[in-house]
Amino acid sequence: HPALALHDVHFAYDPRRPVLRGVTFAVPHRRFVALVGPSGAGKSTVFALVARFYEPDAGAVVFDGRPAAELTRAACRGGIAVVHQNSHVVHGTLRDNIAYAVPEATEEELRRVIELARLEEVVDRLPGGLSAVVGERGSTLSGGERQRIALARALLVRPSLLLLDEPTSHLDSINESALTTVLKDVAQECALLVIAHRLSTVQHADRIVVMRDGRTVAAGCHEELLTRS
Ligand code: ADP
Ligand code: ADP
């Protein structure tokens, strides 16, 4: 079974105005799937349904072969980590931020996510390495570093499914390409679903699903979609 599958999902916030009108795609385990499409296509709404903030009006959301409707919300959310566009806003120290999700995280666990999110260079810059992370203020970090901290924080919970909403929205092109590479490695650990408005952000995705007007209208790898459009 894929980690996540949506089958012909329909949804409306307001019954007079349908937002999702047939969304079908799957995210296999340890695969990187991207959801792209113009603003208003319904991408964030798909995330809200996967996180079970809302239930579909028709169709099904299925986790690892088990229909969401048969599971409690807590059971569905247990294995899911979500990083929103603005999750990277940090106030405390770097360590506070990374350990926020799992306060009792061991040094070994912190090292693992720091490595996975390629935060070593941030940590190395601090005199004393990881132990000095305790003193580093979030405000001195760049936007790209902050987005990677949000990612590290999400990975600390060892999710089976990781949802990232526009993870590069605040990045310049150099940081964007760095994060793009990180995503490829992250997918070695868990199923990854990333919302993007630019195809370049998700060029390493195993599969790109295109949404338009509340429907999934195409799917393929980066090259396939480029040659078709
Ligand atoms: P493709 O066939 O090109 O992979 P589709 O949009 O047809 O793309 O399907 C995407 C994924 O959604 C498929 O891998 C499949 O597992 C799942 N899927 C689609 N429709 C259904 C369905 N009616 N029942 C079960 N799984 C489905
Ligand atoms: P995308 O993420 O692709 O930009 P959204 O899912 O945010 O698309 O929005 C799809 C449509 O749903 C838009 O018309 C938007 O105005 C509407 N919408 C999104 N969130 C809400 C909400 N909480 N209540 C009512 N309408 C919403």
UniProtKB/TrEMBL annotation:
Ranges for domain ABC transporter: 4-229
Subcellular localization, as worded in the UniProt entry: Cell membrane
Descriptive protein name: ABC transporter ATP-binding protein
Residue range from the parent sequence: 356 to 584 of 605
